[in-house]
Amino acid sequence: MTTAITKSSWQGAALAAAMFFIVSLSPSTVTAEGNERLQPVTDPQIQQALQQGTKIRIAGTGLHSLPETPGTIDIELNPGETVERVLLYWQVFDDDVDYDTEIEVTVGGTTYPVIGEVIGEFVDFYQATNPVTSFYGAYSATIRADITNLGLIQQGNNSLTISGLEEIELPIPGFGDDGKNGAGIMLIYSDGSDSTLQLFDGHDAVWWRTDIRTIYVGQPVRFEFAASDNDRTADLSMFVASVEGQQSGEERQSVVEIRIGDSDVIRDINVLTSAQGDEWDDYLRQFTVPAGTEFVEVVILSESDPYQDPNNSDVNPASLVWLTAGLSLTEPEPEECDCRPKLLTFKYVGGSCDATSNDLGGHLKCRGDLHWADGIDIKAIKGKGRRGHLRLDNDWIAKDGTFTVSSRGKQHAQLPERLKLILRAGHKKQMLRLNTACDTPMQVGDQFGPLLLVDMETPEHCDKDRNQCRNRGGKERHKWFKKYFYRGH
Predict the structure, then answer these.
(1) Where are the domains of the chain?
(2) Which of 207, 212, 372, 429 is the most exposed place for a label (fewest CB within 10 A)?
(3) Is 161 helix (H, G, I), strand (E, B) or coil?
């Protein structure tokens, strides 16, 4: 155990009177709208990245070694992965609310000054927008910067050195400049997989001290999504600061609780240990989301193991700041089907994703909006992370024009079970991810966003009206439908 002044020893002496006032007035959880909880990210560029991306990768570092030793973050970008957004988070304690929102990032000998914005603070229980002091009698904030345009993350391993924060100062003598808790890189990227992303961030202080009844209870983050008929894989990524270390004290108790729908519960006990250096943790957890599940709920608890210590007898479990919670939910691969179509012909009729008439059993993904553009550029790509483009007879069409997509393989080869259509009109973009498997059949007359399916060729043994197996032979070439819609009706 350290002999230095710790967060736990100072909090017991200096916060007791102030927190007695709060707790005696109300036994409720200390919380505040928009600050003392994590909220869904609203920045338009980050939202777009979450729609286009499929995975989240995080890497962070503690910064208590500053200014003598900068922190180092190593993060990879693998072949086949495309950067959608790069975010830098950091968390600080300071003696006033004029936080140091400038940090320095050095890559390859070049230093880039980065200016961030405060996205959450510790606030007054009754005045939700009024920052007040918390740990160490200091103000506390989470800061975020979008550093995508710096181009620092390239293919391969990337090493970033973090320094700066020279204006940080704690108000209590003896703590020095150790309000610099840490920083982390969050990489939002796409890898061709069929996954969806959600991201919450902000500032949520968590601490339960039983001897003086101090209560900062973490607010649950709830990820909601449509149920699936199949099990899915989820990856949870979180940044957490100020759990334990030379400053906060050693062996501070905590529980990360993950509720998977109404049945399963995961409790990770004491996994937050400033594993990335004083005082910062990258929390990563992969788990299965059973079929039929519609939500995952996550919360960080300041308490000991509820099974080993049901009465939470630890007088001073971990105090911490929770910054982010991101979830990637991967869809299962559909079963191969020998009735996948050979050719699909679409007519560009316009419309948003809301115009879709067949969501392919929940497997259709539609993002973006062309806003009824007069003409569009088209790209067709294989899904499931497979490389290579598909064959198009037209890569640009005007309104009411048609295009046909087919395989680049053998002349009569079937299309892959998943394909992606990327439509562009100037700066506007729309993406359609289609499932061609016969367990979720498509049929002529279906509309997918701005595209109407007007013709389809399937193998000889498949159903006449859709990509579904049947017992009689017959080649499908919907000539009556093609003749009607090709005329512009």
Answers:
(1) 7-330, 343-486
(2) 372
(3) strand
Per-residue tokens: 470: 């049947």
Instruction: Provide the 8-state DSSP code for 423.
Output: E
Query: How are strands ordered across the β-sheet holding 102-107?
Result: 71-77, 156-164, 102-107, 110-115
Amino acid sitting at position 6: T
Contact in structure between 67 and 166 (CB atoms under 8 Å):
yes
| Burial letters 311-344, b for 16+ CB under 10 A, else e | ebebebbbbbbbbbbbbbbbbeebeebebbbbbb
Tokens coding 300: 């960080």
State the residue for tokens 């900068």.
70
Q: What is the DSSP string of 126-145?
A: SSTT-B---GGG-EEEEEEE
Burial code (b: 16+ CB inside 10 Å, e: under 16) for 121-158 equals bbbebeeeeebbbbbbbbbbbbbbbbbbeeebbeeeeb
Tokens 């909090």 belong to 11
Distance CA 407, CA 389 (A): 8
Q: Model confidence over 336-347: pLDDT tens digits? A: 456 788 899 999
Distance, CA of 393 to CA of 405 (rounded, Å): 7
Cis peptide before 279 (omega within 30 of 0): yes
Residue 347, C-beta contacts closer than 8 angstroms, at least 6 positions apart = 400, 401, 402, 451, 452, 454, 485, 486
Rounded Cα gap, residues 281 and 272, in angstroms = 6
The continuous run of DSSP H or E covering 282 comes out as: strand 280-289
Structure tokens at 441: 């059949």
Tell which residue, 239, 231, 278, 221, has the closest CA to residue 4: 278
Give per-residue pLDDT as tens, 280-325.
Answer: 999 999 999 998 999 999 999 887 666 666 666 555 676 788 999 9
Percent of the chain clearing pLDDT 70 (strictly above): 73
**Ranges 205-209, 253-257, 259-263, 462-466, most confident:** 259-263
Residue 37 has pLDDT above 80, yes or no: yes
Instruction: Summarize pLDDT for 406-439 with one digit per residue, the tens.
Output: 986 655 578 888 889 999 999 899 999 998 876 6
Tokens linked to 465: 């009206």
- Give the separation between CA 418 and CA 285, rounded to whole angstroms: 28
The first and second tokens of residue 183, run together, are: 């920083």
**Token representation of residue 307:** 């099974």
Burial 236-258 (b: 16+ CB within 10 A, else e): bbbbbbbbbbebbbeebbbbbbb
Confirm if 211 and 9 have CB atoms less than 8 A apart: no
Is the separation of the CB atoms in 81 and 299 below 8 Å?
Answer: no
Helix, strand or coil, per DSSP, at residue 49? helix
